[in-house]
UniProtKB/TrEMBL annotation:
It comes from Thermococcus radiotolerans. This is Nucleotidyltransferase. CDD domains: HDc. Residues 52-179 form the HD domain. It comes from the Archaea. SUPFAM superfamilies: HD-domain/PDEase-like. PROSITE patterns: HD. Keywords: Transferase.
Length: 416
């Protein structure tokens, strides 16, 4: 039989053939089996062991279905499918966990740029000699697109906006898959969405991806799910504490001149390498392994901060050195060792008094043929975009014996 059947826990049986099967067989794509989709969330939700591999297959599967629903021609359909399959190819270990330190330590390698370079054949991230063949595979098929077209689509820079929005928009195949998948594996019912309906109500109208007026409720349901998953799972404070501890272990290693190629590694490899360094990194890995996590000393919401304080925190959010300085001062003040007090921020949008609304807002095609932005048609969308943040803006964690002291002095240290 031609092709391969893969049985997915969320979408059921999926048949892989041709270019998709060849790309799935590459070492770069197989590497994603060893990168957890939700970083360290399994410490809070024990079922959250799913990988970027299965999410990428799920996004491809939905791209294939959406292509059929909106009537893309074969070339555009395959371009979208390849883009969806490879959209996370550049992810480093533990997915988004180390995202905040990429800019500071390895400027050229955030996961989007790295993914683009892999698709263009500029970097082989794996240790396999069969790596680096992605562009060759794409060019080996007789489709009317190039590796550069795929890279542009993944980066959200493709000239056909509707294709870009199907992969990075208000309603896109990436989100549709991760919401359903993350809800399934965490056991958190908030992420449940009407997937079938959503695929049926998207249209291409005058070169843009729009949602049919009949589908407003399905989109609202998806936005509610996304908002609740953000606060309940993606920014769960215990998950953020664990990720903060692991990030500090990696920062320590980088400052000492080790692990500069961490972005090439898989989850297990990073843990083993950090453990081999002994000292502070090894202690952090051991604590994570046995779930001996720091405790939250401060969980402050945006409402508890003045606009001056928000500005001060935004500076620290953007500047790794400033954040490390605050952590060291706090540790000194309470008698802890360096690395034993960690400061985490929820997304910077929350720090700014008005959250930045996504520029790629989807339009609604009304019954009379008129187009209106989603937020004009449904006040719920507006409210949800504002809410799409966790309840806390600032999180400070430390071993439990330092918690009372940290609570006493944190404001004085950060804001004086």
């Amino acid at each position: 039989m031609d092709g391969k059947i893969i049985h997915d826990g969320v979408h059921g049986s999926m048949k892989l053939t041709g270019i998709i099967l060849d790309l799935v067989k590459t070492p770069e794509f197989q590497r994603l089996r060893n990168i957890r989709q939700l970083g360290l969330a399994y410490l809070v939700y024990p079922g959250a062991n799913h990988s970027r591999f299965e999410h990428s297959l799920g996004a491809w599967h939905l791209a294939k279905r959406l292509s059929q629903e909106v009537g893309l021609d074969e070339n555009e359909s395959m371009l979208l499918q390849v883009g969806a399959l490879l959209h996370d190819i550049g992810h480093g270990p533990f997915s988004h966990t180390f995202e905040s330190i990429y800019k500071h330590y390895v400027k050229e390698h955030d996961h989007m740029h790295l993914g683009q370079d892999m698709v263009l054949g500029k970097v082989n991230i794996t240790e396999s000699e069969n790596g680096g063949r992605i562009p060759e595979i794409i060019e080996g098929y007789d489709y009317d697109f190039t590796p550069k077209d795929v890279a542009d689509l993944i980066r959200g820079k493709h000239e056909k906006h509707y294709l870009g929005h199907m992969l990075h928009g208000d309603v896109d195949v990436d989100q549709l898959d991760y919401l359903v998948r993350d809800a399934h594996y965490t056991g958190v019912a908030h992420g449940i969405i009407d997937l079938e309906r959503l695929l049926k109500v998207l249209r291409i109208h005058e070169g843009e991806l729009v949602v049919d007026e009949k589908g407003i409720e399905a989109v609202e349901g998806m936005m509610v799910a996304r908002s609740l998953m953000y606060s309940r799972v993606y920014f769960h404070h215990t998950v953020k504490i664990a990720e903060g501890m692991l990030t500090r272990a990696l920062e320590f290693a980088l400052e000492e001149g080790y692990l500069w190629d961490f972005w090439r590694m898989t989850d297990c490899r990073v843990l083993v390498e950090l453990e081999d360094l002994e000292g502070f990194p090894a202690e952090m890995v051991r604590r994570i392994r046995y779930r001996e996590l720091y405790k939250a000393a401060v969980l402050a919401s945006a409402d508890e901060l003045t606009s001056e304080e928000k500005r001060e925190l935004l500076t620290a959010y953007r500047n790794v050195k400033r954040r490390q300085e605050i952590e060291r001062t706090l540790a000194d003040m309470v008698g802890a060792r360096e690395g034993e007090v960690i400061l985490e921020f929820s997304i910077a949008d929350l720090m700014l008094s008005e959250p930045r609304l996504k520029a790629t807002e989807i339009n609604v095609l009304l019954g009379n043929g008129e187009l209106q932005p989603l937020t004009k048609v449904t006040p719920l969308a507006n409210a949800l975009k504002r809410r799409q943040t966790p309840r806390w803006a600032v999180l400070i964690a430390a071993p439990k014996e330092y918690v009372p002291k940290v609570r006493e002095v944190w404001r004085k240290v950060i804001f004086s």
